[in-house]
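Build the 3D complex.
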Amino acid sequence: MREVAVLGVAMTKFGVSDKTNLEMFAEAGLEAISKSSLNPKDIQALFFGNCLGDFEEGQLHMAPFAHAELGLPTGAPATRFESACATATVAIRHAALLVGAGIYDVVLAGGTERAAGMGTPLATRTFAMACQAHHESSAGITFPGVFAMAAHMYAHKYGIALSELKRHMAEVAVKNHYHGSLNPKAHFRKPITVDTVLNSMMVADPLQLFDCCPFSDGAAALVLAEANKARELVEKPVFIAGTGQASAGSLYLQRDLTRIKAREEASRQAFSQAGIGPQDVQVVELHDCFTIAEILALEAMGFYGFGSAYKSASSRETYLGGKLVVNPSGGLKAKGHPIGATGAAQVTEIVEQLRGECGERQVNGARVGMVDTLGGDFGTVCNIILRV
Amino acid sequence: MIMEYKLTYNQFMQGLEQEKLLGLVCNGCGAATCPPLGVCRACGGQELRVAEMSGVGTLRTFTVVRVAPEGRTPPYVVAMVELDEGPWVMGNLEGLPLDQSNMDIIGKKVKVGSRRVQTKLPVQENQRSLTFHLI
Ligand SMILES: [Zn+2]
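Done.
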């Protein structure tokens, strides 16, 4: 495999947008191409992420329209990826694999989503379509419900009083909102307190509103190229050191929801390819769609032992300035979660952290960063390790 | 070799309508798979026979859904149950006041039943979901 690097990265502000999916993607895509010292005509393929365009805008087959918005060459195929919330990360990984394999030299990857525009009832229904339709969604399970069941199982398995676990979970939200307050592109920029979380409405016991990420609109995109070409074009290419992706079936087949097996396997693949371990990583953008999700992710990737990451935010170890900075962007929790764009925004943050471009929320001395994105009810996990 | 799906969704639904929880038992390793899959969930074996499950299991986790998908009326309890034969299934805990649907129900024995899928949106006529009642 050839070495692959990330060139220009870009994302729209996440939040509530009056722009269409294509308009948001055009903004992110054109900025990423321009920051790469390239023109749209230089792009050889588009790896395009979108989940729910059909429900959001009545739009299927969005990739070729995105291709037209950007003015890509006819010979550059545009393909839509869908892996629920892991959509863009999976698109980026496949872009990296094909550049690494020598099929393409320069490609664009990313995603776009207008989740906020759907409103809560439709968004809750369509997100839940990423659970197994016949045997899970039929019981009225929701995404907060999935992670709520994981939180109850975590408290039971490790013998932690639910009230104690909930306080530690709330600290994850406090941390990520604090980080988000330092990110001009974040959906939410207001710091919160533990009481904000514990006084918010109950969504799915034991998860309250501020345990949950928002439905957001937004897009993000990046250019990937063969490493030598990248060195010619940009001052600070960031290299893809390793990737991993793994799959699992329905929750009832996975059984122990405190152990996300697809993540254990995907991160093992990524670390193995990179030839490093968790101790070598300084900054992580991981899938904190719910507060408990950050805790589960830190354990599955090997940053904490099983049953011990629930104190990670309360101990401040995962804050800016801590030993492993987790979600300096604000994460899905505060930066926002336009599902088809999320993974590309995570890569964008890690690339900018490794380039030292993050201003107030810069992780000092970051040399290796990791992206973690989970799709569906633990069915897809994709990890990407980046280094300078 | 032509593969014929051993226990289809429609057959599984017909079983539920007749108050039977059907599954597959693997001729290779003996594990039960319920709801059905194309292969044995434990070993991937394809030599499977249809068998009725006892319909009794242990509640492993739950949530009370208070913000529901379009078409559903909250609140309601979603739970995962480990059947006595081994497979886990997802469904709705019924017949228990919400204020008693707390951590204490984890580990309790339940009887598995079914009902028409609860939604105001159009669904297939025969579509059912599992229900659980504490024994
Ligand atoms: Zn078997």
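DSSP finds one helix and eight strands in chain B.
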